[in-house]
Protein: DUF1559 domain-containing protein
Amino acid sequence: MSATFPETLDMMRVHRASPKPHRGFTARPRRGFTLIELLVVISIIAVLISLIAPAVQSARKAARNLECLNNLKNLGLAIHNFASANGARLPAVESNDSMNINGATAPTQAQIRDSGYGWPVSLLQYLDRSDMYRQMDGTYFISAAEWSNIGGTCPNGAGTCSGSISGNQLNQWIKVFTCPDDQNNYKVPLGLSYAANIGFVPEALWSTTSTGGDNPYAATSISNVHHQEKVDYITAAGTAASEQQLAARASGVFWRDGSQPRVTLDDISNGDGLGQTLMLGENIQSGNWISRDTDYIGFGIPIAVNSGTPTGTANGAVGGASKGVSLSLNSGYQVWSATNDGRMNANLNAVRGAAPRPSSNHSGTVNFAFCDGASKPLNSAMDQRTYAQLLSWDGQRRGQGIVDASAFNN
Structure:
C-alpha cells in the first residue's frame, strides 16, 4: 500500500533533521588558556603582588615594633613591681650587697668594684625567671673562667673573681630583654636591647666609652665613676659637695648605691612627674644583660664642665653652681657631640658598649619606657632640650622649667 501524502512529508522531515556526521572530526573541550589569556593573568598577578607585598612587609615591621614596645612595657612593669617590694626604691644601675643601700655611709672604691649585678638581674624575679636569679643572687662573684664563658673579662683579675655561678647556665637569651629589630642582640645569648636612664655624665668620663668592651671597673671611666659619689661634675674621683651630689642624683633615674638614697617613684612623682621622665630606652649597642658595665646597661647624655661645676658655653653645657640653676640648660642647648656623639642614633656602627646613648633600627624613632609605665616611640630628631629635660626627674626646681608635653607626645 502506497504511503499517503502526510506520511511522505513526515519521512522527508526526519531525513532532513538527521544529517550525516562528518567523518574525521571530533569536537573536544578546550584545555588551559590561550597565550594571550595567560599573559593577562600573569600581569594581573604581578600587579596584585606589587600592591600586597609592601603592605605585608609594613605589617611585619609594625608587629616587630609593637613587640619591642611591649617588651619595654613589661620591663617597666617589672621595675614598678620591684619598687613596690622595696619601699618605692628603683633598682640600682648596679647593686652591691656590701654597700649600705640606705645611704648611711659612702661606699669605698673597693666596694664599688666588689660583687654586684646590674638592673636587668634585679628584675629576673619579676620576669618569671627566679630560676636564673637564684644563680646570681648578689652574694657570689663570677669566676674569671666564667667571665670568659659569657664573653667578658674578670674586673680585677683572677684573684678577685671566684665563686660557683655557672656561666654556662646563665649564658641564655631572655626574650623580653631584646627587640626583634636589634640584630646585635635579638636571639643572642645574654643579648640586651634596652638601657636604663643614668642621667647627665661629665664629658671627660663620657669620652672613655670609645673602646667599648665589658670592662666595668676601669679606674677612670663612666663604668666605674658613674656614681653619686663620683659623678659630681668633676673630672676626677673624689668626694663631692652635698649639693652637687643632689644635682647629680636629680639628673637621672638609676644610680649605684651611695651616700644618697636610691631614687624612688615618689621622688619622681613629686619632681617633674612620672609621665615626663624617661626610665628605659633602646640601644642597639647595649651589651650583656648580666653585665655591670654602665656603658652596657645605661644611657645618658654627656655634659660640658668648667672648674668643677656644670657651667660653660660649649654645646652640652648645663647649669651653674647654685641649686636653683644646677641643671638649667643653656640657651641654644645641644647634646654634646664633639666626643663620642651623645645624640640619639649617633654612631650606629659603634661596637657594643661604646655608645651609651639611645638608638634603634626603627625608621626615625627610638622606643622608650616612661616612669609611669607607658611605652612609646620618640622621634630621634626631637628637640634636644626636651630630650635632656626628660632624662632629669627634678629639673623644674633646678632651672630647666616645665617640660613641654607637646614636644614629645605625638
Observations:
- The chain has one domain: 58-140+172-407.
